[in-house]
Structure prediction request, 354 residues.
Amino acid sequence: MSTRTHEILREVMLQEIKTAKEKLGKEMVILGHHYQRDEVIQFADFRGDSLRLARLAAETDARFILFCGVHFMAETADILTAPEQTVILPDPKAGCSMADMVNRDELEEAWELLIDTYGDPPFPITYVNSSAEVKAFVGQHGGMTVTSSNAERIMAYALRERKRIFFLPDQHLGRNTAYRLGIPLEAMKVYNPREMRIEGGEAREDTKVILWKGHCSVHQRFDPVHVRKMREEHPGIRVIVHPECKFETVQEADESGSTEYIIKAIERAPAGTKWAIGTEHNLVYRLAKEHPEQEIYSLNPIVCACYTMNRIDLPHLHESVMNVLNGERKNVIRVPEEIASWAKVAIERMLRLG
Ligand code: SF4
Prediction:
């Protein structure tokens, strides 16, 4: 296809999406995660991180929710919406490698081992970046979900309720947050699901947090060396990273926080501030475009963008919008009721705590 034909096709798609949105009005809402491509996010009625999008999904009365994000987010939206509402994920293959690092069977094995080891059940907490069946397990066992925005508050609450926390699937978010709460690294253990064992020596009574050995393949690639390099090349630069980054990277950075936190930090900073940001590239480059008054760099420009988030592109969005307009139900995300009901318990516990 020639470049000109490609451009014309894109123009047609852009125009058809705009027209369809006008025709559908309040019947359809498009939710877009901050990590989505510009060509997609421009059509989002609301943008946000996982927490904001979960709240928006719970509040909207649109009949169709077109979720531009990844699979676990669309599942959460389905769980929180009424049965007559329909959640659509423009590309059903848009998963999350972190969420895929834990499944219900592995979790049940781990749970038994932890109870055998420590005697009493820990407080299970799952990052929202997990499947509905994992959320359901957590809900059934008295726990709740967290996002990177509220992990600190929820972990503090959990430690008042039980002696220890079982945090999954992102070991880095769990470790970084627990450390901020004053828990020393020696009081944290890692559960290795491949080897079905707790790493790092024998179980100790003073263990406060057991971390599932999972990670985000994008954020794990920001290293302390990148922070040092940025500081050398750009004296005075501030380094801000997402707490899905490794502990050592977060320690070297000036600040860490959720995507909403990062966005607000950039918005509030005086003009002329230099920033190196350690999170997904779509967001970093959008911030650089939207804030020409700041000097913004990716902490590691050779880190790949999130492959699964990027699966949703203009053609996928266009197809989904046209399907809604033409009454075709495709790529609908439906969580079975027996899973959804317990997963909802875990999510609503989180939403109540804030
Ligand atoms: S950035 Fe990481 S955690 Fe987020 S969707 Fe991609 S793989 Fe999953």
